[in-house]
Amino acid sequence: MTNWDVEKIRKDFPVLSQTVNGKPLVYLDNGASSQVPQSVIDRTSKYLAEEHSNIHRGVHYLSQHATTAYEAAREKVKRFINAPDVKECIFVRGTTEGVNLVAFSYGRKFIGEGDEILVSQMEHHSNIIPWQMIAEEKGATIRVIPMNERGELIIDEYENMLNERTKMVAVAHVSNSLGTVNPVKEMIATAHKFGVPVCVDAAQSVPHFPVDVQDLDCDFFVFSGHKMFGPTGSGVMYGKRKWLDAMPPYQTGGGMIRTVSFEKTTFAPIPDKFEAGTPAIAAGIGLGAAIDYINAIDFEAAAAYEHELLEYASERLGDIPEVKIIGTAAEKASVLSFTIEGIHPHDIGTILDQQGIAIRAGHHCAQPVMEFFDVPATARASFAFYNTREEVDKLADAVQKVIEVFA
Length: 407
Ligand code: C6P
Description:
The protein is built from 14 helices and 17 strands. By secondary structure, the protein is α/β, with parallel strands linked by helices. It folds into two domains: 6-30 and 298-406, Aspartate Aminotransferase, domain 1; 41-295, Type I PLP-dependent aspartate aminotransferase-like (Major domain) (Aspartate Aminotransferase, domain 2). The chain has a seven-stranded mixed beta sheet, sandwiched between helices. Helix 2 runs antiparallel to helix 10, helix 3 packs across helix 10 and helix 11 (299-318) runs parallel beside helix 14. The longest helix has 21 residues, at 61-81. Residues 31-32, 94-96, 124, 126-127, 172, 176, 201, 203-204, 224, 360, 364-365 line the site of ligand C6P.
């Protein structure tokens, strides 16, 4: 095993030490929301207890202090994703809001009748519906990049779909329902040959391995704080300045204007143009603390450890004949989706919960994926670097028990 002191890491996460239904909690629902280390809890509490004030508005001490802390968090985001310019990092509530921002703002300006938007077959609903809505509004068409039986995008077909009508490619870095790591760098390079921008849904990648938006050369990169050990209500939409400067505001109101009169309003430059109203200040500062936490651990080692854990879990569950693993791509991260013939995933989830094991059961907001695999839902274990092999063993034993109960 990789040299990773998981027991030491677990102590950073207070929630993990509790019992659920009389059993030690085994938290395997990190894809839905990861847990929060004490340092993030402390930083957020400190802000609320000692520093809280509205930002960008006040001349008084607390307001300036809060503004400095919030903008420091933005700097941390910039370094975390290696954005060229901190102003290209827009704070949003999460991935959903980020994709909506890109779809409606970019779409209103750059998408027209007869245009095409490519989304992949494995997208989360958050990276489908906003594009559908803007396509309807503009008379554009959604085209779907297909995948194979392992849950890998068929890149040859993708390349054939790009043409002069394509105005956007929207693709997940990592699929939340299958765990597939998509070859986004290559996909972006291909899209750029046609002058097409790419919006990467990074909700499931940033918690699991280091990312670099300049290396990827993506046009937009969107993620949620609560899946990367930060608070809910925090998230980021990174966009290349050339697009952000040209795009209209998504929401309007306070904090995003230069001048307002009843005749005309002019807008502030980025990032303010896209941050109308009082933001989630505590959440943003908490996200900064989550990035500090990730920077303080050996994230590369964490990624390697997590990968081994996923392989081990895939082996353990793969050894159970009744279990069918959904999503067997060569490149995967964190997610193990499975079904058991004749047992509904909700029943699996409920019985596992009785053992203190938290997994997710359902369609994972990816109904097209369920349709492709012809299942109503899957059970999904999703891992983080604080999970252990013993927890994987408990999962496998509990799954075996579920099968016995239903036999
Ligand atoms: N997936 C899951 O259990 P929000 O809710 O805005 O933070 O993230 C939306 C989202 C977008 N894209 C991907 C790839 C995602 O995984 C998610 C959230 C959770 O898989 C909740 S459905």
